[in-house]
Design a protein that fits this description.
alpha/beta, 13 helices, globular, binds zinc ion
């Protein structure tokens, strides 16, 4: 045995030691006594599967303020601003910023990221940069890339060819942005085009879908129907789905079972949805987060993504998926104990499932896990504590000492 994580508490409340040999978990049970090269004392601490961020934009991260900030705070100004930045940044800029971000995220226990990469950048710098980053980090961090036509599949001349070019270059997942096409009809056609490509190539689909306060933005309906028609069940995802917040309840009562039937995963991004949506409202201002508890109750797989860290759309973000889950459970009113525990799985096990990764605290799975300075998932959400140890594929890749306050009061 190479590593023994001793005495930790698993997210379900059981206590167990975890034995690691090579890159695999070889035993999970109380009282393992065999010798180990490295023993990590996790007594009283939560030991969890790694955090996964299933929705991110690594080509834009850490670019905040370049060339200016987003004055309106809207999605549309962010897209315009990104268009300006794309013309200014070099491939090396993107690689440097992305690697800086990856280091920060790994320290927070994030060991898998699905990043959209804008393929409408004519220079193709974005794709080449993130393919290079994926290769650099691959032993530690699973970086899954989505061919994302930011400026529109049909709205941008040549975008469809660029999606194909990116997939040919090794990008993993087919993306799209139907609500940004010129018409609803073009949006629906782009969903069909994305599903066609995915079916032909045996790939997954992850669309920016209905990121809008417009209740009539219903591309998720087309995505669900096309998922069934192409036999892509379990391989497609609708990111954001914010329009569902504003939809008519009667329509949603038909829509939710359709999404469940099609096994389309839902990926809301709470930090971003709560700040980009509702910008055109007076009071009351809509929250702009999709219907998370209702989707879950309908049997839909739902994971929270982070989306942005210091980029044209969002000035904050830290790479900490506990911040994401914390915001998500607040905005979705998920404060019952079982809902808070669910929010923790929505940034750990569920996104790994959507990405098709064999993470998880089970014998035989990859030895990737996180030791947190908190006793259980709800306390982890409350405190967002340091990650005492991060183990990826059987290697300790980060350790953080807890902060200690010396109080001079009372
Ligand atoms: Zn996004």
């Amino acid at each position: 045995m190479d590593i023994l994580v001793r005495g930790g508490t698993l997210p379900d409340g059981t206590q167990a030691d975890i034995a690691i040999t090579g890159d695999r978990i070889t035993a999970i049970e109380p009282g393992i006594t065999a010798e180990a090269g490295d023993v990590i004392d996790a007594t009283g601490k939560l030991v969890s599967a790694p955090f996964c961020d299933v929705h991110f934009h690594m080509d834009a991260t850490l670019s905040y303020g370049r060339p200016r900030v987003n004055a309106s705070g809207t999605l549309l100004e962010g897209i315009g601003l990104w268009g300006e930045l794309k013309r200014l940044q070099s491939k090396e800029d993107i690689v440097t910023r992305a690697l800086t971000y990856c280091r920060e995220a790994v320290g927070k226990g994030v060991l898998a990221i699905r990043s959209h990469v804008d393929v409408t950048d004519e220079t193709f710098n974005t794709v080449e940069a993130l393919l290079e980053v994926r290769e650099t980090v691959k032993d530690v961090l699973d970086l899954q890339l989505v061919a994302f036509p930011q400026d529109g599949w049909y709205r941008t001349p040549g975008a469809e060819d660029q999606v194909v070019r990116a997939l040919d270059a090794g990008v993993d997942v087919v993306g799209g942005i139907p609500h940004f096409e010129r018409t609803m009809a073009d949006g629906a056609a782009s969903v069909t085009a994305a599903c066609t490509l995915a079916a032909e190539r045996g790939l997954r689909v992850d669309l920016h879908c209905d990121e809008s306060d417009d209740p009539l933005s219903r591309h998720i309906e087309t995505l669900a129907a096309e998922t069934i028609r192409f036999g892509l069940q379990g391989r497609t995802a609708g990111s954001h789905l914010t329009s569902m917040h504003s939809m008519d309840n009667y329509y949603v009562a038909k829509l939710l079972p359709l999404i469940a039937e099609a096994q389309v995963a839902a990926i809301p991004n709470p930090l971003i949805n709560i700040t980009l949506q509702g910008r055109m409202d007076s009071y009351p201002k809509r929250r702009g987060l999709t219907r998370v508890p209702e989707l879950r109750a309908a049997g839909v797989t739902v994971a929270f993504g982070q989306d942005c860290v210091k980029d044209p759309w969002y000035p904050l973000g830290s790479g900490d998926m506990l911040d994401v889950a914390h915001m998500g459970l607040h905005v979705a009113l998920m404060t019952a104990p079982d809902q808070m525990r669910a929010a923790f799985t929505m940034v750990t096990d569920t996104p790994a499932e959507i990405m098709g990764l064999d993470f998880g605290l089970e014998t035989g799975k990859r030895a990737s896990l996180v030791v947190l300075d908190a006793p259980d998932p709800v306390e982890a959400l409350r405190l967002r504590p340091v990650r005492l140890a991060v183990i990826s594929n059987g290697k300790v890749v980060a350790r953080t000492e807890p902060a200690r306050t010396t109080l001079h009061a009372f």
